């Protein structure tokens, strides 16, 4: 992709799944990449597997004070940031809406929505010109049962992204990406084999996406090839949402 060489990129949740694949892709594009992740073991493993990573910081993005401290640590390596991939998030499958406790609700919203805000807020203060991509989901566009808290957090990210795009233009582009089913450890852990197959059967392309397929699109959206794109959300779901009018 054009314009990614030597760009300073921060990927949150970069030690596994889509985040790790994204780190690898941007490294391959010649970017300087830093990772925020709350899982110190996974982060250590990723840093060993991708030694080109410039910096790894263990941080829970749902804690605003911890995020501020993580950025102070990152400042030692990156005096400014060119690209943010706001990817950190959690998903919990519930029996029903009635079964969600206030603590569970706060946990998901604090990570997926508040955490994205904390990181974006710190990032844009360090960004003269650049790109912010917030990782939403097709769950933010339609009602997927058993995930009311996750759905709400991802829908809110769409509104946040649009508002950021309008307010931060023309210096900063802001985009939301809405993946469908992606074969990550978090996704697979939520399903029995039967449930996993049911999801695949509902996708016209017949399978989950590979994390690398999401990473490729993220690299495009962050590149100069997409320099006229801002304020939009993009669905990458193998055709799953084509079954409904969204």
UniProtKB/TrEMBL annotation:
Keywords: Oxidoreductase. It holds the Pfam family adh_short_C2. PROSITE patterns: ADH_SHORT. One of its GO terms (molecular function) is oxidoreductase activity, acting on the CH-OH group of donors, NAD or NADP as acceptor. Belongs to the short-chain dehydrogenases/reductases (SDR) family. This is Oxidoreductase. It comes from Actinoplanes utahensis.
